[in-house]
Amino acid sequence: MVLLESFTSQVMAGRGLYRGGSSSTLEAWQALQHAHIQTDILYEDSLAEGGLDDRQILIMPDCDVLPASVVDQIRKWQEMGGKVLADDQLCPALKADATWSAPTVSNAPASAPPEVAGTAADVVPAQASPSLPLPEKLAGLCKDLGWLPQVSCDSPEVILHASQTGEAVCLFVINDRREAGSYVGQHGLVKEAGLPLSAKLNLGQDKMNVYDLTHASFLLPKRDDSGLVIPLKLGPSEGRVLLLSPSPLIEMQLDVPETATRGNVAEVRVKLMTSGGNPMPAAIPVAVSIRDADGAPAEFDGYHVVDNGELVLRLDLARNETPGTWEVQVRELASGMEAVKWMQVSP
Length: 347
Prior knowledge:
It is a single chain. This protein is mainly β. It has 3 domains: 2-100, Class I glutamine amidotransferase (GATase) domain (Rossmann fold, 3-Layer(aba) Sandwich); 150-245, Immunoglobulin-like (Sandwich); 251-346, Immunoglobulin-like (Sandwich), CATH 2.60.40.1930. 12% of the residues lie in helices and 38% in strands. The chain has 4 helices and 24 strands. The strands form 6 sheets. Strands 2-1-3-4-5 form a 5-stranded parallel beta sheet, covered by helices on one side. Strand 3, helix 3 (68-79) and strand 4 (83-87) form a beta-alpha-beta unit.
């Protein structure tokens, strides 16, 4: 899923924010976020570099003026099965597979209704047809075009972003619930003050291991008719990073040489394993603490990522390193397992 931001339309038609044009592109982007439709931004010059490769749906707001080369590339992509979802301002040279009406703002004064013969009781005002909010409208159109959410949430004020890491998915969850504050929001036009929020994440699956990377803890999902559900309570502007893995994290091993000599390399290995002693097929952050004999932080002290089950740190010991007993401590940030070992550094 990608959204085309057309610089040509911005310059030639005053779209986007260029020269004070409309902000309907930003409104579409925010609606996609609230509909939990993960979308990447695509620019016109990215099309020639394969920007539409392996993409299913192209979203095109404010794209009424496009270069001929861009039109040709989008047409070829549509012929191969790609779908275009656009507003009603799409370039006439292209045909959208589904459309929505872009919001319009008119500064013209409302005209008086024409005089109609009869009494006021005879005049029945026309009833406006109910219109779905833009997030719901875009979600319905995307589903009609074949899009299915990987993870969903019952609150549109929760922003989701998923990133594949091996066989697992790293899911970012952000509380975007806000209200008008007292700094610039006193007129009710700017929502600047964050609010707490309770929501439920629907994993859409019957089996999944869930780890909270922000709290280094295992989460136990609940089960309902739609699959596994994770209840969340988020503070104002709070975010979480969840790891969704089909394989459980079972064991961590830390290998540190018992002795090392200044001027040489000491190799530290961290291994994360799943069932059967197999490497954990995911990228998992770890906090590594390396202290020399005086307790001072040494090289590679900090945060690292164990990718596909293994991390190797090559400690290049300088000739003036402090000799004595060094400590290496590792804490993986998925389930909170820890390990510590010591290394004797000699001159």
